[in-house]
Amino acid sequence: MKKILSPKIKGSGPARMADKLRSLVAGDPEISALGGQITVYEAWALDGDRVKVRIEVRLPDQSYRMLTRVVSFPLPPEMKVSHRDWTIVVAPSWYGFG
User: What is the pTM assigned to this prediction?
Assistant: First the structure.
């Protein structure tokens, strides 16, 4: 497992990743039944296109609950751009997300 998101990582790329993970986790029946505000706390890249996400849910009674879910989150495919005799290869990574 490779940690791809933590509270210590700041910037717009991690914020966009957290927003995307939040929307994926919100579809879980148990989490949506809680009816609270979801905050993505940490995330780890697993094998394949799966991500383990640790979230904090703030419930309507102002209490908190920590949950962990595994969601499918594929990276975009590798892109190749050719210009004259140059070939530029853009390989997406978890750290360059966004």
Answer: 0.75
